[in-house]
């Protein structure tokens, strides 16, 4: 008797499964009742959703795992933010979506599905370049989006670069100017001081920054060092002077000023090939970067 009962139940299960997988009317709901297909897409009550949500699901159009034998079906899907997965035969795949009342995200329309479990937001055919991300596209129109809309590269954050203009006259000669980003002009704030240099020579400058909001112009202590090779001998110079700061923007990290000073060759290091001193006139406009300590 038990074996006969089990055989009857198995036969009933086979009949039920066959009806669910067929394309006839037994696979369709008698009404547009979406009460069993809930999720976060909106309020679901007797007869369907009350209104469309203010925000669209973040995974709208992302592939999900569902197939049916009709042109379009919708099933509850916990893995989708909108609560449902739509099978869309025309587009050849299934994707996360949401139930709807009348409106959907750009590129999607609110349509009744053939299994009458909707209405749900169904994607239009992908059209790369229209600025709308449809099913099958990763992106469309945004920065870093590939020409075929199938991949997105996150923008690379370029490191901040220092730069500016430095003009110098040495030994009373005509002034020389260099402008541009580092290494043409380098200005770095580190360990509480601003250090700057240029590609004109290997002269380096170090100074404390003025107080933010300080009135201009003002005098600021400036230290200078220079090492140059003359006839195979290394000549080392240094100086300390006062620079006149004419412009200063602490928030914008810019500073400008000028100075005139004499570099003296360090005793015990300078040989006969080295000049005992070098007269220098300096003008600078800098954009500095702050280094992590």
TrEMBL record:
Keyword Signal found: yes
Key words of the record: Signal
Amino acid composition bias (Gly residues), ranges on this chain: 36-48
Secretion signal span: 1-19
Keyword Signal: yes
Region (Disordered): 24-58
Name this polypeptide is given: Uncharacterized protein
Organism, scientific name: Lujinxingia vulgaris
């Amino acid at each position: 008797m038990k074996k006969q009962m089990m055989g009857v139940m198995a036969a009933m299960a086979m009949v039920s499964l066959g009806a669910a997988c067929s394309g006839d009317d037994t696979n369709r709901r008698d009404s547009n009742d979406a009460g069993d297909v809930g999720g976060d897409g909106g309020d679901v009550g007797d007869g369907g959703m009350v209104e469309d949500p203010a925000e669209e699901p973040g995974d709208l159009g992302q592939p999900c795992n569902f197939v049916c034998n009709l042109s379009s079906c919708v099933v509850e899907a916990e893995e989708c933010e909108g609560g449902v997965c739509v099978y869309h035969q025309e587009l050849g795949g299934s994707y996360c979506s949401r139930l709807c009342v009348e409106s959907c995200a750009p590129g999607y329309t609110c349509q009744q599905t053939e299994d009458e479990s909707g209405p749900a937001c169904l994607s239009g055919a992908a059209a790369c370049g229209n600025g709308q991300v449809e099913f099958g596209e990763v992106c469309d129109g945004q920065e870093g989006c590939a020409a075929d809309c199938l991949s997105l590269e996150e923008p690379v954050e370029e490191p901040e670069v220092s730069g500016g203009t430095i003009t110098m006259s040495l030994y009373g000669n005509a002034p020389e100017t260099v402008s541009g980003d580092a290494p043409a002009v380098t200005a770095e704030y580190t360990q509480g001081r601003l250090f700057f240099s240029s590609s004109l020579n290997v002269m380096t400058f170090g100074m404390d920054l003025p107080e933010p909001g300080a009135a201009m112009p003002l005098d600021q202590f400036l230290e200078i060092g220079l090492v140059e090779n003359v006839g195979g001998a290394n000549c080392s110079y240094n100086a300390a002077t006062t620079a006149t700061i004419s412009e200063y923007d602490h928030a914008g990290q810019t500073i400008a000023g000028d100075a005139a000073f004499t570099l003296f060759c360090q005793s015990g290091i300078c040989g006969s090939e080295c000049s005992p001193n070098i007269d220098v006139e300096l003008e600078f406009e800098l954009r500095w970067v702050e280094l992590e300590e």
